[in-house]
Amino acid sequence: MATFGVVDEDLKVDYKAELLKKVEQGLIPDEEIRSLIRSQLERPLSRMSIANTQANDAAALGIYQWPASFYEIMLGKIMKLSCCYFKDESSTLEEAGIAMLELYCERAQIQDGQSVLDIGCGYGSTVFYIAQKYPNCHITGITNSVEQKNYVEEQAKKHDLTRNVEIILADVSTFETKEQYDRILAIESFEEMKNYNLLLNKIAKWMKRDGLLFIQHMCHKDLAYIQEPFDEDDWLSEWTLYSTGYMTMPSAQLLLYFQDDVSIVNHWIINGKNFSRMCEEYLKNIDGNTVAVRNTLKSNSSNIEEETLTRLSKRMRFMCLFFSELMQYNNGEEWMVTHLLFEKK
Ligand SMILES: C[S@@+](CC[C@H](N)C(=O)[O-])C[C@H]1O[C@@H](n2cnc3c(N)ncnc32)[C@H](O)[C@@H]1O
Questions:
Q1: Substitution site in 192, 218, 219, 278 for ligand 1 pocket (most atoms within 8 Å of beta carbon)
Q2: pLDDT at position 182, please?
Q3: Are 273 and 327 within 8 A, CB to CB?
Q4: If you ran DSSP here, which 8-state letter would residue 251 be given?
Q5: 320 is catalytic
Q6: Nearest to 245, CA basis, from 231, 232, 233, 229
Q7: Are both 256 and 293 inside the same structural domain?
Q8: pLDDT tens-digit series, residues 280-299
Q9: Which pick of 82, 177, 189, 206 has the fewest CB atoms within 10 Å?
Q10: Is residue 4 part of a domain?
């Protein structure tokens, strides 16, 4: 029997229509119908590990394998691939990046001498901010992207920070360690994971007795959902650069339901317009450097076709437009960013 996922769209429709017809005609025995229902039920369950199997595919094929030099153009000096905090109209992207990093240190109660783990460290914005501000902190970053690991390690050498910066290439869902940390940060990496109960259970084991966990994630004010088309006309959910079903959009309160191993200490909301404004700054950086963007994407693959170069940079622009519109919708009070501080139970 044909299984979904390996047949093309037309065959899927034929198969479904035919199946329903046979069910309605009473041609399929109950035992077989039950078995078909059970195998359908297992499909969502198989996606409930911490990071579904798409996590590695997306890292291998997706935007985190783009050259870091592209991100240097788009993100600017701070290399922060997550919401910045624009204190006022005149704030630049760099100032807004620093303002948000400062807020992490304050809200996560970072002090010099602590050990810090940054889950999903990206291009090292948080790692380097802490390493420079607190020279006696030891900061470990985890990323599932080779490109990000190489970039952060190069920068650590360049800025003489190898003594207190360490980067681990790992998928958090399978990563294990006996180490325990004073502070654990996860800045917009939970959106790329699932099964928060399992994830928080794991992270809690990495926290010292009096350790704190600080999380920043995008959210909708009330709804939690997986980013995937909700009907066949939903082209928007299909066109983001992440593969469909990869990204989770938690609600602002979602993680409060997962307090088996950690307890909430504080919870803040940041208006979505901050995220939107950051995307507008990314767009300006891409549009103001079109030749450099093409050259840097070319440097990743010498025989890349012109058409592919245009397609990639336009898709990234589309992603910025998408997140900008999403986050400014309803004055930034529909989708937004939340900060959560947890202690170990
Ligand atoms: C949106 S980026 C945020 C990067 C960084 N925290 C920042 O603020 O710039 C998400 C990060 O999470 C990482 N990530 C996503 N899923 C992961 C997984 N299963 N294991 C390890 N890292 C993961 C990505 O490689 C990326 O570095």
A1: 192
A2: 98
A3: yes
A4: B
A5: yes
A6: 229
A7: yes
A8: 999 999 999 999 998 888 88
A9: 177
A10: no
